Amino acid sequence: MRLAICPGSFDPVTNGHLDVIQRAARLFDRVVVLVAVNMGKHGMFTVDERCEMLRRATTHLPNVEVAAYNGLLADYARERQAAAIVKGLRAMSDFEYEFQMALTNRKLNSEVETVFLTTSTEYMYLSSSLVKEVARLGGDVSEFVPACVVNDILNKTERTEKNDR
Question: CA–CA separation, 107 vs 86, rounded Å?
Fold first, then answer.
Protein backbone atom coordinates (compact mmCIF):
# COMPACT_ATOMS: atom_id res chain seq x y z
CA MET A 1 0.00 0.00 0.00
CA ARG A 2 1.51 3.32 -1.08
CA LEU A 3 0.66 6.08 1.37
CA ALA A 4 0.85 9.78 0.56
CA ILE A 5 0.53 12.75 2.88
CA CYS A 6 -1.18 15.98 1.78
CA PRO A 7 -0.09 18.52 4.41
CA GLY A 8 -1.35 22.03 4.92
CA SER A 9 -3.01 24.44 7.28
CA PHE A 10 -6.42 24.18 5.54
CA ASP A 11 -7.70 27.30 7.32
CA PRO A 12 -10.27 26.76 5.80
CA VAL A 13 -10.25 23.97 3.21
CA THR A 14 -10.87 25.34 -0.29
CA ASN A 15 -11.98 23.77 -3.56
CA GLY A 16 -8.34 24.06 -4.66
CA HIS A 17 -7.23 21.94 -1.70
CA LEU A 18 -9.99 19.43 -2.42
CA ASP A 19 -8.94 19.23 -6.08
CA VAL A 20 -5.37 18.26 -5.08
CA ILE A 21 -6.60 15.80 -2.44
CA GLN A 22 -8.93 14.07 -4.92
CA ARG A 23 -6.18 13.77 -7.50
CA ALA A 24 -3.75 12.39 -4.91
CA ALA A 25 -6.42 9.86 -3.89
CA ARG A 26 -6.43 8.56 -7.48
CA LEU A 27 -2.63 8.24 -7.53
CA PHE A 28 -2.05 6.56 -4.16
CA ASP A 29 -3.61 3.68 -2.25
CA ARG A 30 -4.05 5.77 0.93
CA VAL A 31 -3.87 9.52 1.50
CA VAL A 32 -3.54 11.26 4.85
CA VAL A 33 -4.67 14.87 4.76
CA LEU A 34 -2.48 16.28 7.49
CA VAL A 35 -3.44 19.46 9.28
CA ALA A 36 -0.09 20.87 10.24
CA VAL A 37 -0.03 22.71 13.54
CA ASN A 38 2.00 25.90 13.22
CA MET A 39 2.53 27.46 16.64
CA GLY A 40 3.56 30.73 14.98
CA LYS A 41 0.21 31.13 13.23
CA HIS A 42 -3.13 31.88 14.80
CA GLY A 43 -5.74 30.45 12.46
CA MET A 44 -9.35 31.40 11.99
CA PHE A 45 -10.32 27.83 12.87
CA THR A 46 -8.92 25.54 15.54
CA VAL A 47 -7.05 22.43 14.45
CA ASP A 48 -10.02 20.28 15.51
CA GLU A 49 -12.42 22.44 13.48
CA ARG A 50 -10.19 22.20 10.41
CA CYS A 51 -9.97 18.42 10.78
CA GLU A 52 -13.74 18.15 11.08
CA MET A 53 -14.32 20.31 7.97
CA LEU A 54 -11.82 18.19 6.03
CA ARG A 55 -13.51 14.97 7.13
CA ARG A 56 -16.85 16.24 5.85
CA ALA A 57 -15.29 17.48 2.60
CA THR A 58 -13.60 14.13 1.91
CA THR A 59 -16.32 11.65 2.93
CA HIS A 60 -16.70 10.65 -0.73
CA LEU A 61 -13.05 9.52 -0.82
CA PRO A 62 -12.82 6.12 0.91
CA ASN A 63 -9.01 5.99 0.81
CA VAL A 64 -8.55 9.38 2.53
CA GLU A 65 -8.11 9.98 6.24
CA VAL A 66 -7.61 13.23 8.14
CA ALA A 67 -5.09 13.73 10.95
CA ALA A 68 -3.27 16.53 12.76
CA TYR A 69 0.39 16.72 13.75
CA ASN A 70 2.50 19.32 15.52
CA GLY A 71 5.98 18.02 14.72
CA LEU A 72 8.19 17.78 11.67
CA LEU A 73 6.46 16.55 8.53
CA ALA A 74 9.49 14.37 7.74
CA ASP A 75 9.08 12.63 11.10
CA TYR A 76 5.35 12.03 10.53
CA ALA A 77 6.11 10.62 7.08
CA ARG A 78 8.64 8.25 8.63
CA GLU A 79 6.20 7.17 11.38
CA ARG A 80 3.50 6.42 8.80
CA GLN A 81 5.97 4.90 6.29
CA ALA A 82 4.70 7.29 3.63
CA ALA A 83 5.98 7.01 0.09
CA ALA A 84 5.25 10.63 -0.79
CA ILE A 85 4.34 14.10 0.35
CA VAL A 86 1.90 15.69 -2.10
CA LYS A 87 1.91 19.45 -2.48
CA GLY A 88 -0.27 21.59 -4.72
CA LEU A 89 1.30 24.43 -6.67
CA ARG A 90 -0.61 27.47 -7.89
CA ALA A 91 2.22 29.63 -9.25
CA MET A 92 5.99 29.90 -9.53
CA SER A 93 6.05 31.79 -6.22
CA ASP A 94 4.62 28.65 -4.55
CA PHE A 95 7.30 26.54 -6.19
CA GLU A 96 10.25 28.42 -4.68
CA TYR A 97 9.01 27.91 -1.11
CA GLU A 98 7.78 24.35 -1.68
CA PHE A 99 11.02 23.35 -3.42
CA GLN A 100 12.99 24.53 -0.38
CA MET A 101 10.66 22.57 1.92
CA ALA A 102 10.96 19.46 -0.29
CA LEU A 103 14.75 19.59 -0.10
CA THR A 104 14.61 20.01 3.68
CA ASN A 105 12.19 17.09 4.05
CA ARG A 106 14.45 15.00 1.80
CA LYS A 107 17.43 15.80 4.03
CA LEU A 108 15.45 14.89 7.17
CA ASN A 109 13.88 11.75 5.67
CA SER A 110 15.47 10.36 2.52
CA GLU A 111 12.77 7.68 2.24
CA VAL A 112 9.98 10.07 1.26
CA GLU A 113 9.54 11.81 -2.10
CA THR A 114 7.77 15.12 -2.63
CA VAL A 115 5.30 15.12 -5.51
CA PHE A 116 4.03 18.43 -6.87
CA LEU A 117 0.59 18.62 -8.44
CA THR A 118 -0.24 21.78 -10.32
CA THR A 119 -3.55 23.22 -9.28
CA SER A 120 -6.33 23.05 -11.82
CA THR A 121 -6.57 26.34 -13.71
CA GLU A 122 -9.96 27.16 -12.22
CA TYR A 123 -8.38 27.30 -8.74
CA MET A 124 -5.01 28.93 -9.47
CA TYR A 125 -6.03 32.21 -7.81
CA LEU A 126 -7.65 30.59 -4.79
CA SER A 127 -6.20 30.58 -1.27
CA SER A 128 -7.52 30.21 2.26
CA SER A 129 -6.45 33.80 2.92
CA LEU A 130 -8.58 35.01 0.02
CA VAL A 131 -11.59 33.02 1.27
CA LYS A 132 -11.23 34.49 4.78
CA GLU A 133 -10.95 38.03 3.40
CA VAL A 134 -14.02 37.64 1.17
CA ALA A 135 -15.98 36.19 4.10
CA ARG A 136 -14.88 38.97 6.49
CA LEU A 137 -16.08 41.56 3.98
CA GLY A 138 -19.47 39.88 3.59
CA GLY A 139 -18.84 38.28 0.20
CA ASP A 140 -20.18 34.95 -1.04
CA VAL A 141 -17.59 32.19 -0.57
CA SER A 142 -19.78 29.34 -1.82
CA GLU A 143 -17.89 28.99 -5.11
CA PHE A 144 -14.52 28.85 -3.34
CA VAL A 145 -15.08 26.12 -0.74
CA PRO A 146 -16.87 22.76 -0.48
CA ALA A 147 -20.58 23.30 0.19
CA CYS A 148 -20.33 21.41 3.49
CA VAL A 149 -18.08 24.09 5.03
CA VAL A 150 -19.76 27.31 3.86
CA ASN A 151 -21.83 27.64 7.05
CA ASP A 152 -18.77 26.99 9.23
CA ILE A 153 -17.05 29.95 7.58
CA LEU A 154 -20.09 32.21 7.80
CA ASN A 155 -20.69 31.34 11.45
CA LYS A 156 -17.03 31.86 12.38
CA THR A 157 -16.94 35.18 10.53
CA GLU A 158 -20.08 36.39 12.32
CA ARG A 159 -18.69 35.39 15.73
CA THR A 160 -15.37 37.10 14.99
CA GLU A 161 -17.16 40.31 13.98
CA LYS A 162 -19.24 40.29 17.16
CA ASN A 163 -16.12 39.77 19.30
CA ASP A 164 -14.32 42.62 17.51
CA ARG A 165 -17.09 45.12 18.31
Answer: 17
